[in-house]
Amino acid sequence: MDEARAREILAAVGLPVELPGRAPEAPLLALGENAVFAVGDLVVKIGRDAELLPRAERELALADWLAETGVPAVRAAEPKPRLVEGHPVTLWHRLPEAVRPAEPRDLAPLLLRIHALPEPASFTLPRRELLGGVERWLRLAGDAIDPADAAFLRERRDSFAPAAAALTPHLPPGPIHGDALPRNVHVGPDGPVLVDLETFSSDLREHDLVVLALSRDRYGLDPAAYDAFTEAYGWDVREWEGCAVLRGARETASCAWVAQHAPTNPQALAEFERRVTSLRHGDPEVRWYPF
Questions:
Q1: What is the chain written as a DSSP string?
Q2: pLDDT tens sequence across 194-223
Q3: pTM for the full model?
């Protein structure tokens, strides 16, 4: 699904014509597994394919649960997803304009609140299947990537999956965000708010902390900003003996995730090849670029 196709689906959603910013003029906020558009006072998320419908349903249930528990997060504008031309579509209330960019330190209080939550009573959170999407992303990449690279990532997945399952956690397992990055936080007039709920899971809390450790080493995150995060959270996951395993699993998944964009985006292909090469060479500090 490219932007043109996403806009076709947005037009088919049937939002009221009086909404300002309606398709095709609606600003595109993100294009990954979902195309995300701002449409008036709403944000519209369009899933890449019908396989993502159960996740969209769970994301809406999560929004209700977080509202009940008082965790600052985006709120749904409709209780159920729509299925439009084979794509799950969810509607959300648009947040006020950000007062500043989110920083790693803004994540810490949100994660502490999430990590203090018990399991939800009305639905079951899945495990954090970090490597579960690898096969689908490689399938979507198709012939755009070298088959040898795809085979290499499958081998990494198969080696890291049992190692991750055997880890002994330092923190008590339970609800996690699953993709704890500053890009998934919006700092509005009332403070930091979570804006992406689709990877919420119940698993090792360390999953949420490895994300920023990897950002420090791979994506150029300022070490001082990382230190501010760990100070606010109260613990540095790099002290944990299982950190390297979760990091390796996440690197594998992140590399395969980029591959799905390779058929239509030369920059994605170049970034995929950069990441695969660094993994093949075992170099943990080659700079990766967000995509």
A1: --HHHHHHHHHHH---TTSTT-TTSSPEEEESSEEEEEETTEEEEEESSGGGHHHHHHHHHHHHHHHHHT--B--BSSSS-EEETTEEEEEEEPPPPPSS---HHHHHHHHHHHHT----SSS-PPP--TTTTHHHHHHHHGGGS-HHHHHHHHHHHHHHHHHHHT---SSPPEEE-SS--GGGEEEETTEEEE---TT-EEE-THHHHHHHHHHHHHS---HHHHHHHHHHHT--GGGSTTHHHHHHHHHHHHHHHHHTTTTT-HHHHHHHHHHHHHHHTT-TTS-----
A2: 988 988 999 999 999 999 999 999 999 999
A3: 0.85
